[in-house]
Amino acid sequence: MTFLKSLLIKLAIPLLSIFFGFFAGAIIMLVSGNNPITGYAALFDGVFGDIYYFGETLRMMTPLIFSGIAVAFAFRTGLLNIGVEGQLIVGWLASVAVGVMFDLPFVIHLPLALLAGAVAGGLWGFIPGILKARLHVHEVIVTIMMNYVALHVSNHFIRNYMLASGQRTEFIPATASLSSDFLRGLTDFSRLHWGFLLAIFACVVMWFLLWKTRKGYELRAVGYNPNASSYAGMNVKTNIVLSMVVSGGFAGLGGAMEGLGTYGYAQILSSFTNLGFDGIAVALLGASTSIGIFLSAFLFGGLKIGAANMQASANVAPELVEIVIALIIFFVASSYLIRWVLNRLQSNREGK
Amino acid sequence: MDYVIEMINIRKEFPGIVANDEVTLQVKKGEIHALLGENGAGKSTLMNVLFGLYQPEKGEIKVRGKTVQITDPNVANDLGIGMVHQHFMLIDKFTVTENIILGNEPKTKYGNIDIRKAEKEVARISELYGLRVDPKAKVEDISVGMQQRVEILKTLYRGAEILIFDEPTAVLTPQEIKELMEIMKKLLQEGKSIILITHKLKEILSVCDRCTVIRRGRGIGTVNVSETNQNELASMMVGREISFVVEKEDAKPEDVVLKIEDLVVNDLRNVRAIDGLNLEVKAGEVLGIAGVDGNGQTELVEAIVGLQKASSGTITISGNETTNLSPRKVTESGIGHIPQDRHKHGLVLDFSVGENILLQTYYQHPYTKNGVLYYPKMYEKAKRLIEEYDVRTPNERTLARALSGGNQQKAIIAREVDRSPNLLIAAQPTRGLDVGAIEFIHRKIIEERDKGRAILLISFELDEVRNLSDRIAVIYEGKIVAVVDPKTTTEQELGILMAGGKLEKEGEPI
Amino acid sequence: ACGQADEEEGQAGTPADTQDTTDEETGDDTDGEADAGDFNVKMVTDVGGVDDKSFNESAWEGLQQFGQDHGVEVDYIQSSDASDYAPNLNRLARDNTSLSFAIGFLMADDIYSVADQHQDKQFAIVDVVIEDEDGNTVPNIANITFAEHQGSFLVGVIAGLQTETNHVGFIGGVEGFLIKKFENGFKAGVKAVNPDAQISVQYAQDFNDASRGQSIANTLYSNGADVIYHAAGGTGNGLFTEAINRARNGENVWVIGVDKDQAEEGAWDGGNVTLSSMIKRVDQAVYQVSEMTMNGNFPGGEILEFGLDDEGVGIAPTTDNVTQESLDAVEEWKQKILNGEITVPQTDEEYEEYLASL
Amino acid sequence: MDIISTLNLIIPTAIFAATPLIFTALGGLFSERAGVVNIGLEGLMVIGAFSGIVFTLIFEGLGFGAASPWVALLVAMLIGAVFSLFHAVASITLRADQIVSGVALNFLAIGLSVFLVREFFGRGQTDYINARIFRESVPVLRDIPIIGNWFFSSIYPTSFVAFFLVFIVWYVVFKTPFGLRLRSVGEHPMAADTMGIKVNRMKYIAVMLSGALAGIGGAVYAITTSANFGGGTIAGQGFMSLAALIFGKWHPLGVLGAALFFGFAQSLSIAAQQIPALANVPQVYLLIAPYVLTILALAGFVGKAEGPKAIGKSYEKGSR
Ligand SMILES: Nc1ncnc2c1ncn2[C@@H]1O[C@H](COP(=O)(O)OP(=O)(O)OP(=O)(O)O)[C@@H](O)[C@H]1O
Ligand SMILES: Nc1ncnc2c1ncn2[C@@H]1O[C@H](COP(=O)(O)OP(=O)(O)OP(=O)(O)O)[C@@H](O)[C@H]1O
Ligand SMILES: [Mg+2]
Ligand SMILES: [Mg+2]
């Protein structure tokens, strides 16, 4: 009974937040002279109206799930990883580099390329991790700085060693590719690729790692209370580093999804991909839980894909979606309000 | 009647709990009025209501006969009510003066703080009431006793006439407690009235005029202290009889379990905190460490359990040297450790009670297999210990945060004792707990001693050290300056040793 | 360079006859004969958006003009992210768009795959040539490129003639094949009229960092350059800011704008620092290709290079700050380029060869 | 080039690049000193840049002439303060996680400002402003050898305002009752509460101050540098300001030093390409230099940065 009730509240908060977010978006559309019903109909249509767009939504979700997991994983261990963006960029580059440079059978090539992405991202996470653990350097600044370093370094590598045409590298060969004719066929030629299944798997892995393993227990303990953890004989420093490495590894895999799945190459980036920064929002909306991340990545992916249709067929500026996302996060974060209202309702009922 | 304070039928609710239920408290002018009750009885809540931090749901407050609405601490200040909080309300990084003047700062004509004038004023008041403080010192650098004097000065600076002390003695050394009692008497002479919350019945009996008892949020009654005794107060409070003397036989010490030789430890600021310390604890005895806070107790414990590096010297446990091993290695060589700050070091408050109980053993078989946790086994174990150690919790999956201090402490003790360590280090094991919980913990410690464990007890509570220990080692400036027999040493004598003095008489080492 | 096949004078507003000699007939375009009734043209912008004051906007203007002139439905979809290109192009293809434009070389790979999935649909892309694995063009994609190097050459001529310090600068956005065309063309133009001029080149590696642009401009001007040409998008804003600041302090410094007439950006209450701009008539190109397609001559698989000849590139109409001497020289060099007397370099290697040949 | 002329090149640019960071980081200082983490500085700068440009254009239209950008700075300050209420309400009154609410603010700022630009201008960018703030040289002082060249010969008046503000903020935070109360709220809100300080009101004031200053920071950037506003105008400057705040250990002078350091590293990386000795260094090294230097500086000699004790927690009366 209490379990049901708490589950209900847990669900009510995000659902109500999403509702309020869309509601506020509708008001903005009204005020700016658009019809919110056509606007949202177009948005909805842009996600579910055609299997192609649905496929694209799932494709868009894929890196968001990884970056969301990356943020959440660090968050669970008390660290704020703003550097997912950079870790994702180096992961993208490294996976494509392995994809392009080697000539191997599929069963080795693809895993190796994925591994390269994870390792590169992990390395990018290792630096702020070790600095935090050894020298108490604030991870937020280091990760912010590492984002810029990643952007420039990866552009440098592509420009000088891997440039094929225009701004990008060679295409990776089929042996390193995640793209799936089956999934494409299923979704009418969307770019949905096997990475989507990997992302689901990653959700399970995160859940299992954090909640079912010894290491996960330690990581959470360190996150909640480093003092008590060191009293209990855990190595706080190692765990901080490990957490950043794993987090970076997930982020790097997110980059590999783009490199080996969506695009099939790496490119000179003239600005950040924002996939990493969006990951912060995905993780927060998903309350740093696996299932939450999956669902909020779907919401974000859908909003992003649907926004184009909203603009195309209802003439609503795509920025509206960003406003809606912001408001949803706001309401989720302010769940105190919703909780308070729910409590009020409940105690009124019990009072009678 | 000339009551300065009357709180009549106060009711205060928190979500899901009634903290004060029709409690009445009447304080006469010029008296020290004790407020007594178990942990969580609602004492602090009642005082926070009086101080304007909480708003009561029901009830009336009269100050000097006039009904008032105390909507926030400013109103309380204006009414002349000051409060010394259970958990100090001091800002570590500020100086003593800054802490005192906060919210009431003297200004120069340029609008900045007139810090000179403030310091002078602080010096003046502290002189007046005999409260020695250094106005320019940072709070993080001064002793707990001085911090408390700062708290008192804060109220006096604001011209408080009615002072509330919430468990002021829990953190003080005997000397400091004595000084505090003197200060209180002085305050009375100056015409102030005092409300004192304490769990120590002896203190109530020695300084208070009247005592109001609350139990589970309800007022039980008010008695004249001169007409009551320890047992009556205790049974009013708990609702049953309590024994105060720890029943124990003489110790039968056996082999040396912990042996420390010439230990030197530098603290975090690289100051020598332990300075050539020697100590032995034998199986089957309780060795109590008596000392004023800040003489190296923390560093001693942390060095033994491996959390601080020893610069030189050796630590041996059951014949194996453990100097500078990792905490886990040390723990595995047979140490149990009840840390002094249970929230900071003892528990992961956001873990469940069960996860906390396994905090030292989660990685061992059968709780972990191949790196994977086996939760059913963990919870099975936790359930057993919760029962055995009478940890009052809805179930083993409840967050540790939701437990009261006493029950949190019991969970820690369950965890540490159950591993059957050769050496059990108990640092401040009963700090801030009520008599019921204290009784339980004391019994448990003696039980373990009688099973042949070596117990190292560190406590600022001299009574506790004297009651439980078979030998008392006095620590002063990082050295053991004397080891004495509790049966033949008086409190005064211990006090002298703790202050760095020497005993004229037979204080031979034993 | 292969698009140079077209030698005819093109007049603005009429479709340039750009039959590629290597082009074979690539199947009959069934959509080609569609009457104006269901003929429609739409475009996908790159992340700059339809109102980027640059080539997306220019393309959209051309398309709107075309729509007006011929009563044809035109529309655009904006991409907010590189990963939007493919779905957006797909959306157009699915909506039975008669001709879908991809504006910007960033969409190269996406249009290739979308065109492959929708072989019955007609596409066109700006700024890049799409080739398949074997290096052949794709039959249902028209490739629109510009001879930016030629236009840059002409503004280089102006810079070379009007520099007083004998030192000019170039600020690039992100280094790459396309921006290199601007750089090398510009340098060649400067050297053509002023072989001793010093040319400083710096890339911001960012198209959207005005602060960086300003810092670079500051460095270049401080080091003696007095004319700076940019091909750096929003980063170029900083160049204008710096130049205006200096002009206000009485310094004689100039900016050469890019893509469109940037006289507006250079205006300040005491004058205008914009010397000239290299304009790129994306609107013309889009208009013409649309018209060709409407008339059943979809140039699929062809490479259309819009150059000096068809006014695809050139110097901006605002010439208030350009001397008559420079204007004459521009005309003179334009003819030399048009009649093949000189070949304007595009890559670093070509530039080296060009220098050697001077 | 010799050292002096190199520095002549680098130092004014460094100051110029540091200026918006100084404003914004000082804003962040107020908020974080009062215990409210402000990741939303980026978004607040966006709002500032947006209002700065839009109102300069409006005032130009109203015939304010050269005063337009200055008045617009004030408006940007006000709008920044109002917009920061989003963060304040969420994180103080509604007890939202401060990081989450800051992230939400960033999303909202960029979405809303670009949305509005489209509504007002029918496109994704605003027009260019004509009335700008220009660099000035200070008579007499500019003639001081060396120093005159660095600090007084061509410098934005806004940079002087920023420097001046550093000292004002220092005075306010460390010398006035307001500052003492502000810091007490960030260190130990309950203690402050028992001393009769209105904790949440203090936090609101602090967050709004941060909005006001970040608003100025964004507006200064837009008005002095980009001269128009679009979605990409503010790209990371807010995060750099946050880094400057932490790097500067939440102290106004530290913030000044950190911001100048960032500016210096950036301008060095740009000037280096024109310095013969450094011209052959691959550009990537110069591009990443500011960031790497910051990391090294933090790791090497700055070490542990410890913020206000109660930072990031919302205050609830009577909680422990
Ligand atoms: N902020 C709060 N929110 C919810 N419940 C609270 C809060 N503070 C106290 N309580 C509840 O009120 C009861 C009384 O708490 P209070 O702190 O007054 O006890 P106490 O008598 O001071 O105990 P102790 O001796 O341990 O200090 C507690 O048992 C607790 O359940
Ligand atoms: N903020 C709070 N919200 C909810 N319940 C609380 C809160 N604070 C305390 N409690 C409840 O109050 C009860 C007693 O808490 P309290 O802190 O008074 O115990 P304590 O023995 O004084 O602990 P401590 O040793 O920490 O002083 C517990 O049951 C706890 O669940
Ligand atoms: Mg209490
Ligand atoms: Mg208590």
Automatic annotation (TrEMBL), chain A:
UniProt keywords, alphabetically: Cell membrane, Membrane, Transmembrane, Transmembrane helix
The protein's name in its UniProt record: ABC transporter permease
PANTHER family, per database record: ABC TRANSPORTER, PERMEASE PROTEIN, GUANOSINE ABC TRANSPORTER PERMEASE PROTEIN NUPP
Source organism: Evansella tamaricis
A family per Pfam: BPD_transp_2
Keyword Transmembrane helix recorded: yes
Topology relative to the membrane: Multi-pass membrane protein
Keyword hit for Transmembrane helix: yes
Highest taxon listed in the record's lineage: Bacteria
Residue spans crossing the bilayer: 7-31, 51-75, 82-102, 108-127, 139-158, 192-211, 280-303, 323-342
Locations listed in the record: Cell membrane
TrEMBL record, chain B:
Gene Ontology MF terms: ATP binding
SMART domains from the UniProt entry: AAA
UniProt cross-references to Pfam families, sorted A to Z: ABC_tran
Keywords: ATP-binding, Nucleotide-binding
Ranges of residues in domain ABC transporter: 5-241, 258-502
Annotated protein name in UniProt: ABC transporter ATP-binding protein
Organism: Evansella tamaricis
TrEMBL record, chain D:
Pfam families, alphabetized: BPD_transp_2
Keyword terms, alphabetized: Cell membrane, Membrane, Transmembrane, Transmembrane helix
Top-rank taxon, per record: Bacteria
Chain ranges passing through the membrane: 6-31, 43-64, 70-92, 99-117, 155-174, 204-223, 284-303
Membrane topology, as annotated: Multi-pass membrane protein
Cell location: Cell membrane
Main subcellular location of this protein, as a coarse class: membrane
InterPro entries per record: ABC_transp_permease
Name of the molecule in the record: ABC transporter permease
Lineage: Bacteria, Bacillati, Bacillota, Bacilli, Bacillales
